[in-house]
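G.,

No rush on this.
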Amino acid sequence: APWRDRFAEPTASQLRTGLPSEATRSFDRVRRYLLTLDEVDETVEWYGQSWCWTLAYRVRREAEPLAVLIPSPEDLQLGMPVDPDFVEELPVRRLKRGVRDGLDLAREPFDTRWAIWSMQAGNLLEDLQDILRRKLDFVRRSN
């Protein structure tokens, strides 16, 4: 599978073809949205044995990505590295449960900075668009 072959960098379309048909619609929607964000570039990057090849969305001149799309055939996911300062700025109580659950993975007691969401649910992207825009604004203000 192109997603798992560490020694052969796939294209975005090759990563898409490895997904089940119901996940391809979500993949296309997430990717299309992330590509509309100003000053955000898409790259194919290897993220180890658990995430394998991903599509990373980077703000120019930033060390870490804004987000990564993880095209796992078992569970299409969106990951976002988050700072505690960024999470503190969010209206967490007003967020939908699915969004809060993903953010909770990047908070105490977990030992990671990555918020993760399963993108199998078709409507989650709409709920995450505000978080992605806020993260992009946070990154720009931090420079």
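When you get to it, here's the other one too:
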Amino acid sequence: MTPTEIAKAWHSVKDRWFVRRNKMHDSRQWEVVHDWGGDLVSDETMKVMGRHDSSILADRQAKRLEDEARGAAVLHALGQPTQHP
């Protein structure tokens, strides 16, 4: 596999993981949201992946989830099965 093919696999992930504050919760107001809907913003294409006490912890989880998805895309392009922790 070439470096260009690896980069294409890495950038093929169009899902987003972002952090938002939800003041409806007394604690753990920072949510990590997985959005796979592209330009469409809809409850049907978003899922809360976790809630945290701080934005720093939420940012870390969002980054980790995005990196895992991109790594899985590269493994898939290499023909290797992906393992979930």
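The helical segments are 3-11, 55-77. The mean pLDDT is 91.

Enjoy the weekend,
O.
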